[in-house]
Structures are given as structure tokens and as C-alpha cells.
Amino acid sequence: MSYPEEKLTRFCILPWGFMQVHAGGMMQCCAVSPDIEQGDFLIDYCQKEDKNEEPFDSIGLQMMRKGLMTGNLRPMCRNCFFVADERITTTEFEKRLKAYLCSRNRGIDVDNEDLSKVHAYYWMAISFTNRCNLSCIYCVQSTQKNTNPYYKMEFPYEYARMTLELFAKQGIDKLSTCVEGEATLYPYWYELISEFRRNYPDLYLAMTTNLNRKFSDDEITLLAKYNELDVSIDSMNQGIYAELRRNGKLELLLENVEKIQAKVKELGIKGPSISFHTVLSDRTWQSLEDICEYAFSRGIGVFVGNYEKRSNTLAEKEGLVRPISELSYDVQTQVFDIMQKVKRKAEESNTFITFQGDILSKVKKNVEVNYNEFEPYDDREIINRFIEQYHGGKVGLHLAYAYDDDNISHEGILIAKGEKLLLKNLDLENAVVREIEIYKDGKVSNRYGQKVKVGYRKSISIKDGVLEYTPSYGNESIQSIVLEIF
């Protein structure tokens, strides 16, 4: 079914391609807090006599899918911090969605069926337990695990095996074992996953884990047979790590990583792709290089997620951390430089680093604001060096236009009061310039009665390839000076 009205939407196919089931039965097609009921797997499938009916196309899921297809996004989709902000047309969305559904080869008639009522999952996840041994400050368990019975739920064992079988029959490529708790705390985790691995040896098996418990040798062996382990870690400093991942022991985490890698070597198998997942905030950005140095040295990739504000977490209630976007321009510039640095190191070490939710481009936009009002169109040494050394300029020092009272334009380098121009590596001995004084609103030059006063041309010396120039600002009414270059 087609939705012809052309609008803009976000590109996300998770409602068609991914499903996670929580220990208490709640169904959810992404990690964003749901604002609509998407189904209860225990009631809608496990407890029903007719197991031929699948619960994967509920009214709530249909509404989410329609919202993405029509551009009438639900609030949770509008506020999503995982998907890139880039918008595409609904026509382009439909084209990409149909291509995905066809690629899954599920017999869906993409040209005639209502695509809000179909699914073709490539990835499913189950949370065997909501219990966790940590109380990370970003997680709702930091405030509710001891007061909310939801965080003591475990998926009924009598339903667990049938659920894994149903997931496999969906034709998925990937199964994840964790949603809101620590999967390895579930009493039957080892038994269920060992059996599932034997029955479906080619299915990609993944888990998010904190690796913060003592494992038996058999459990380490099973972890070594996963395809992917995503490990939560925010700092290589034990104090900061313990503060953010409450009850966590950094040395235990690292010990388990090393045991798993040693077991892989002992068994002579490929072993899991291990990745570190770190939350970027004002408390953790300075640890990013250390995390990457350790990770890349061991062939471990890194996922960098932005700190998400949640009102029911300790982080937000007590103001323990702040997102990068709220930090000063100078700090964001440092963060961006570190991001670029670790990105290069990942390439050099043949590993990877992924900045989720478009975080890299968002910080880039914040720190790489282009204050320049024009792009140079000819080859002027001073202008070229300015672009090279100041990139997009900055507040009070950038390329600018000035128009005099005869509407003649003058272009050059704007230098605000308190700023000075310092350029190096110039292949010049002198330069011809003139100052264009721009007066504050309501003010004019005493001599000419004009808001813009054009000065005389003058020659200035450049010593050893260095130009250092500070305008005189002889009048308090002058707002800024554009230094015109000839």
C-alpha cells in the first residue's frame, strides 16, 4: 500500500526488522522509550493455545510503521537519539523499505500489501532477566531496582525454549541475549544458549554484558563461542568507572575480557567480535583515548553513544553528568579533536570506532561553525593563509563584507575590538591594506557623519613571514573593523 502525500521523515526500518522481548513480556522494536503499547509476548503468544498466530504486527507497531511511512512521526520517533537527524522524503523511504523487504525474501507483495502490517525480522533480542548486578547511573535501575518489581522479573523458563525456537523460525540472521538486565545472571542462561548454539550453529549470536561477575570455565568457553560481545565501559580509571557503573569493578571486567580472548586462542576458533560501549559525557570524554588505546591494542572495537537524559535515572535526578552538547565551545572543540584522533587510530589498527546517533557530525557542527561571509575567489596570500589557519573563522575574527554609503562593497578580514590578526608562513615582505570602520547602530563617524568610514590605503611590513596586526580603534563608537586586503 502506498502513501502518496509527500513529506519528510526519518529513515528507520527497525519496526520491520528488529524486535526485542523483555523478561516481563513487553515487546519493543527499538531502544527508545516507547510511547505506545507494542504488545505483550507472554500474553499474545506464550500463553495462547494457538501458536500459529504471531504477535509481531500489533496495532501499536502498525501505528509506528505508518508514522514513518507518512512522515507523521510519533513523539518517540521525532525525539530518537539513535537514528541520524537527516530527513528523507516519504517516497524515498518507501523505496528503501520495499528494497529491504524484498531482500529478506519473505513472500511479501510490497506493491499491494499494507506495509504497516508486515515484518521481516533480521534481528531479534530477548531479555531472560531484568535483574542486574550493577546500578549504572544512566539506567532506570539506578533509582528503581530496589523499589520496582519490574526489575526483578525473569522470563519463565517453560517459555524460554519455545521463544528461541520461534525467533529462529523467523529467519533471523542475529539473536541478542540482553535488553535491560545482565543476561548471564539468568539461572538457565548457560543451558539455553548452549543448546541454541548446537541447534543453530550458523546464526549470529550477540550479547550486551557488563562482564562484572566471576564466570566458570564452561561459561567463559560459551562466551568465547558468541559472535559478538558488547561490553559496557566508560573509563579506564577505576574510580570514575565505579562511580558511573555503580557496584562495578573495572579489574574484573578486564580480567574477563582477557580470559575470553585466551580461551579463543586455546580453542583455535574465530571467537567473538568484542566491542566496548562507552557513554560520552562531561565525565567520560577525557577517558575516550585511554579506552581506545586498550581496546585497539587487543583488536576490540568501540561504540560511542551520547548521554541520553532520562528523568528517572540517578544521573539526571542528581545532575551527575551532562551531555557534550551542553559543554563550552572550547571543550567541544577538544572532544571533536579527540574523536578525529581515535578515528584515525582505529583505521591504523584495523579495528573500528562508531559514533552512534550521529554524535560525531553533531559535535562537528557545533565546533566547525563557518563565520566567514564569503569564499575567496582569487589568489591572495593573506586571505589564503587566514583560511588555512583559522578555518571557518571565529566570533570577532572572520572574512566579512562591508558596504559604504555609496553601496560599494569592501571585503576583508573583520577584526573585532580585543582581537588581533596573527598570520604565519607568509611569502610576503609587505602588504597593502586599509581599514573600513563600522560604527555601532545609531552612531556615525565624527568627521563624515557616516556609519561606515573608509580609510586610506597603507603599506604594512611583514617580518620573517609573520603578520601581526591590531586595529587602532580610536573611537569608542566603532563596532568592528574590516581590514581590506589588496
User: Uncertain segments of ≥5 residues (pLDDT<50)?
Assistant: none
Strand order of the largest sheet: 3-2-5-7-8-9-11-12-13
Largest sheet properties = 9 strands, mixed
Mean pLDDT: 90
- What proportion strand? 15-25%
Going by helix content, strand content and strand pairing, the class is alpha/beta
- Portion of residues in helices? 25-40%
How would you describe this protein?
With 486 residues, this protein is an alpha/beta fold. The protein has a domain at 381-485. 32% of the residues lie in helices and 20% in strands. It has 16 helices and 21 strands. The protein has helices spanning 14-17, 41-46, 59-70, 75-78, 90-104, 141-144, 157-169, 189-199, 217-224, 238-244, 250-267, 288-297, 314-317, 329-348, 359-367, 381-390, and strands spanning 8-10, 18-21, 27-28, 87-89, 123-126, 135-136, 174-177, 204-209, 228-232, 245-246, 273-280, 301-306, 353-355, 397-403, 409-416, 421-423, 430-439, 452-454, 458-461, 467-469, 478-485. The strands form 5 sheets. Strands 3-2-5-7-8-9-11-12-13 form a 9-stranded mixed beta sheet. Helix 9 links the parallel strand 8 (204-209) and strand 9. The radius of gyration is 29 Å and the shape is elongated. The relative contact order is 0.07.
Q: Could you give the topology of this structure?
A:
Elements: E1 8-10, H1 14-17, E2 18-21, E3 27-28, H2 41-46, H3 59-70, H4 75-78, E4 87-89, H5 90-104, E5 123-126, E6 135-136, H6 141-144, H7 157-169, E7 174-177, H8 189-199, E8 204-209, H9 217-224, E9 228-232, H10 238-244, E10 245-246, H11 250-267, E11 273-280, H12 288-297, E12 301-306, H13 314-317, H14 329-348, E13 353-355, H15 359-367, H16 381-390, E14 397-403, E15 409-416, E16 421-423, E17 430-439, E18 452-454, E19 458-461, E20 467-469, E21 478-485
Parallel strand pairs: 2-5, 5-7, 7-8, 8-9, 9-11, 11-12, 12-13
Antiparallel strand pairs: 1-4, 2-3, 6-10, 14-15, 15-21, 16-20, 17-18, 17-19, 17-21
